[in-house]
User: Which sequence fits this backbone?
């Protein structure tokens, strides 16, 4: 039998029972669509995190007080120990390491800002001029913190665009005085609108020199120090140099955590890829269910068409041909279901992107291919039994039935 | 052409064995017109199924065109059945979703004949059996007589050596039944062997050679 004739025969058979065909196609389509949408969510989350890291730049090493062998997570909190503080002088000593371009110490605290009789609770970052480049902040009005000795506390600040709007309305706040904690600060600039970054709303932020923040909030330790290396390849050597330098300063204690951007982002990457696989795996259960449905339907089809199978045998169809005919039907069902599911899945991830524009929810290619292949394989696999049953039918008995 | 030698067909039923055919030896030549008659359960249909390779004998030898077909496997038997035997059934057995022309074409499709070779053969047969106008109708849009004509055209499409007809008029009124029988009888003049299984003595009496079966055995054979 010619392949085209096989397909045409199967197509006509499916067409003769449109309702049933549509239902099975729909079941298969839901399975494929679930795989596509869920993996696109996982992949979207991965890309989202990746983007966040890339915003930070790629030649970055972060130093946290306290020792933690695992990546991420604030060190010391879980163990209950209070780590030895990472001081401003520690940070500045890192400037002497070869290959280091910039050292940005910073601190984060929560404070209250007041002006014109209005108050607002805001996150306050104590940082230096390099912080602007590090977080890729733009300046809407005025200027960012000037280059100066980080040890000098000066009473100036840069405020986020929302803070400016809330306290000063449409008026420019540059040159105005605000009160933060128990000190008065002069506003020297307003940050450009930016939105969220690593969980902090930049538009709500207040930035001041790191020494000022340490005095104002009485912080002995820095939250972290970010070191930028000249070249990416230097990162590993610089990391070891940082460890050594701080160990010498801390009396031989290895009490800091040094994270390269690569290590952190690849950890996230691995976790999220695993998550995507897990989501795909869960969704593929529905594919297996669809496969079983196809098997059931094909078994019913075989028993309904016993007559026809007997006839085909009488007309000279071999058992192999009968098997191929039923295979073709199941394969067509799952192929059409796969394609419809793919379209549904694409629409689904499109909807996700519309609802959550921050998450680039595109299904990874491997998931799309795997879903289609799995649809075909389950469809065909689960039609083995019905096809074999059809091929084994005794033609004489099959024909005897009216 | 068709040669059965000591054919036996038995079925185990519980502890005992039931014989559907017992020691049947029979020879049918090309172009012969044979009717097989007998009461229900006498083994007529089993005989037909064995000749048509739809069933295998428990013992004995069956030669078709001097080839021992009992020794063939399923695939090989399918080929012999496709090329040498045409069936006509009481209940027509047309594929309901295919048109008359597609039903006639089916054996050619199964044989893997190219579409442009199939078309003229089908068209000629439809013309010959007077159903060309109904070629694109599905079986449920055809009358009983028309359906049986389509079935006969389908049986003839591979140019078989023998047509096996099991009560071909059993589901037709008398007039239509007579037309169908005339059509089948005409085929024997082309050298096709016709084996007609029927209950109806009048119908069976029309054949040149008449075989009566009783209890799985040949009771009488008018040629011998």
Assistant:
């Amino acid at each position: 039998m010619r392949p085209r004739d096989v397909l045409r025969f199967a197509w006509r058979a499916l067409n003769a029972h449109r309702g049933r065909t549509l239902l099975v196609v729909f079941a298969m389509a839901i399975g494929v669509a679930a795989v596509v949408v869920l993996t696109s969510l996982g992949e979207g989350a991965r890309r989202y995190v990746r983007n966040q890291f890339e915003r930070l730049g790629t030649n970055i090493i972060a130093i946290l007080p306290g020792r933690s062998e695992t990546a991420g997570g604030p060190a010391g909190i879980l163990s209950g120990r209070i780590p030895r503080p990472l001081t401003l002088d520690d940070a500045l000593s890192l400037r002497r390491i070869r290959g280091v371009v910039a050292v940005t110490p910073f601190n984060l605290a929560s404070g209250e800002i007041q002006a014109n009789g209005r108050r607002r609770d805001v996150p306050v970052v104590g940082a230096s001029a390099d912080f602007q480049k590090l977080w890729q902040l733009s300046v809407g009005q005025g200027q960012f913190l000037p280059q100066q000795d980080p040890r000098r506390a000066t009473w100036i600040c840069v405020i986020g665009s929302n803070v400016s709007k809330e306290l000063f309305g449409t008026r420019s706040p540059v040159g105005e005085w605000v009160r933060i904690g128990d000190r008065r600060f002069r506003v020297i600039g307003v940050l450009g609108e930016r939105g969220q970054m690593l969980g902090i709303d930049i538009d709500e932020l207040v930035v001041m020199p790191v020494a000022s923040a340490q005095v104002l909030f009485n912080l002995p330790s820095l939250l972290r120090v970010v070191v930028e290396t000249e070249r990416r390849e230097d990162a590993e050597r610089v990391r070891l140099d940082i460890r050594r330098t701080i160990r010498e300063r801390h009396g031989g204690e290895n009490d800091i955590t040094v994270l390269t951007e690569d290590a952190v982002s690849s950890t996230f990457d691995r976790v999220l890829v695993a998550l995507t696989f897990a989501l795909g795996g869960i969704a593929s259960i529905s594919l297996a269910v669809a496969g079983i449905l196809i098997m059931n339907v094909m078994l019913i089809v075989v028993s309904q068409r016993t007559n026809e199978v007997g006839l085909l045998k009488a007309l000279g169809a071999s058992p192999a041909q009968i098997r191929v005919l039923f295979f073709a039907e199941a394969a067509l069902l799952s192929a059409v279901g796969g394609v419809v599911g793919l379209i549904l899945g694409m629409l689904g991830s499109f909807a996700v992107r519309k609802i959550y524009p921050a998450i680039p929810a595109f299904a990874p290619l491997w998931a799309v291919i795997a879903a289609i292949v799995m649809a075909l394989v389950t469809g065909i696999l689960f039609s083995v039994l019905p096809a074999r049953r059809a091929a084994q039918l005794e033609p004489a008995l099959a024909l005897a039935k009216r | 052409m068709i040669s059965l030698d000591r054919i036996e067909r038995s079925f185990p039923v519980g502890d005992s064995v039931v014989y559907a055919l017992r020691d049947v030896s029979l020879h049918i030549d090309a172009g012969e017109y044979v009717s097989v008659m007998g009461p229900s359960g006498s083994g007529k249909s089993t005989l037909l199924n064995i000749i048509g390779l739809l069933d295998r004998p428990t013992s004995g030898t069956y030669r078709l065109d001097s080839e021992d077909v009992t020794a063939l496997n399923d695939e090989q038997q399918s080929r012999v059945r496709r090329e040498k035997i045409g069936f006509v059934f009481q209940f027509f057995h047309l594929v309901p979703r295919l048109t008359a022309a597609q039903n006639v074409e089916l054996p050619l499709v199964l044989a893997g004949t190219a579409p442009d070779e199939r078309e003229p053969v089908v068209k000629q047969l439809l013309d010959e059996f007077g159903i060309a106008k109904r070629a694109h109708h599905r079986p449920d849009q055809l009358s009983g007589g028309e359906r049986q004509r389509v079935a006969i055209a389908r049986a003839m499409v591979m140019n078989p050596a023998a047509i096996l007809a099991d009560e071909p008029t059993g589901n037709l009124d008398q007039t239509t039944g007579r037309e169908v029988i005339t059509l089948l009888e005409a085929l024997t003049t082309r050298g096709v062997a016709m084996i007609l299984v029927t209950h109806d003595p009048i119908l069976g009496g029309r054949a040149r050679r008449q075989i009566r079966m009783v209890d799985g055995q040949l009771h009488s054979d008018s040629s011998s």
User: Anything to note?
Assistant: The radius of gyration of chain B is 17 Å.
